[in-house]
């Protein structure tokens, strides 16, 4: 990996959090798939485009971008070696020839100047210590007129069934969150304020910034038990008393449907142009 200026995120995403996402690749992909249409409609990737997918994780969106860009190509960049291993394996298994990956800190990685027509990200741009520097670095990688399109979480609101359930899990399982859990939560919420997003992108040199609310539905499990097991697997080594387990199950029960445990969540779809 080249220079890293987000060592804490490198540690987290190369440690237990990255391992969890890698082990549950299919589930995370299915959960996040609800934003794909909005993201790629906005990104308007055209045949021949060169696309950069920032914080690409296991590369689901890099492969979608590669399909839309052919005969162009897509490059996924991520700070997590285990997730990039999954990305490369899935790309080979699916026979996608025009997608490649780089392990790097996107805030400072020396991308080829004006090397991309489109930069996309499905929830991979919230974790920078210095967002303005990071988006400026990404602007440098875009050609003039190139587009930026990403999704990031909204603050909890009317449509936040998911945030409410996750908040309850966090309270019941992790009563006294340590500095790591608190830092993870604040990173996830770092771009939740649209005014802050607009200010950061303007300072980083983008124009035509638009922040649009999108409501998506995520499937957290086949049934309540499966969803609870998955959520608890995010807190290894925390056995729960039966009463609390019942409370968690009760919280998910209203969201159980014939096609899985479904919860709505609000995200921002952010688009901008590099002048
Ligand atoms: C919430 S996950 C989303 C992964 C992927 N975009 C997806 O939709 O499955 C966030 C990703 O951002 C990556 N990430 C965090 N900080 C990063 C940085 N400074 N540079 C590159 N990637 C980073 C993490 O390793 C992780 O894969």
TrEMBL record:
Q: What is its EC number?
A: 2.1.1.-
Name this protein carries in UniProt: Class I SAM-dependent methyltransferase
Residues in the signal sequence:
none
Q: Does the keyword Transferase apply?
A: yes
Protein's GO biological process: methylation
MF-aspect GO terms: methyltransferase activity
Give every Methyltransferase domain span: 51-146
Which InterPro entries does the entry mention?
A: Methyltransf_25 (IPR041698), SAM-dependent_MTases_sf (IPR029063)
Q: Which organism is it from?
A: Streptomyces tendae
Q: Which UniProt keywords apply?
A: Methyltransferase, S-adenosyl-L-methionine, Transferase
Lineage: superkingdom:
Bacteria
PANTHER family, A to Z: METHYLTRANSFERASE, UBIQUINONE BIOSYNTHESIS O-METHYLTRANSFERASE, MITOCHONDRIAL
């Amino acid at each position: 990996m080249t220079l890293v200026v987000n060592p804490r995120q490198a540690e987290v995403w190369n440690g237990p959090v990255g391992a969890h996402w890698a082990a549950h690749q299919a589930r995370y992909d299915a959960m996040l798939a609800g934003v794909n249409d909005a993201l790629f409609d906005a990104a308007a990737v055209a045949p021949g485009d060169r696309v950069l997918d920032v914080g690409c994780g296991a590369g689901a969106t890099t492969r979608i971008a590669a399909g839309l860009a052919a005969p162009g190509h897509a490059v996924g960049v991520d700070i997590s070696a285990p997730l990039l291993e999954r990305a490369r394996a899935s790309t080979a298994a699916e026979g996608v020839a025009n997608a490649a990956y780089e392990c790097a800190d996107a805030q400072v990685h020396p991308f080829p100047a004006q090397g991309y027509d489109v930069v996309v990200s499905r929830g991979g741009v919230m974790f920078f210590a210095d967002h303005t520097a990071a988006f400026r670095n990404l602007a440098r990688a875009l050609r003039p007129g190139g587009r930026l399109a990403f999704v990031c979480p909204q603050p909890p609101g009317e449509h936040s069934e998911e945030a409410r359930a996750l908040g309850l899990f966090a309270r019941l399982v992790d009563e006294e969150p340590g500095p790591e859990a608190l830092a993870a939560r604040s990173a996830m919420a770092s771009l939740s304020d649209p005014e802050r997003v607009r200010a950061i992108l303007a300072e980083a040199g983008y124009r035509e910034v638009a922040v649009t609310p999108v409501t998506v539905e995520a499937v957290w499990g086949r049934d309540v038990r499966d969803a609870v097991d998955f959520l608890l697997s995010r807190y290894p080594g925390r056995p729960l008393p039966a009463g609390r387990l019942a409370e968690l199950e009760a919280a998910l029960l209203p969201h159980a449907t014939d096609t899985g445990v479904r919860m709505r969540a609000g995200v921002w779809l952010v688009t901008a142009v590099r002048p």
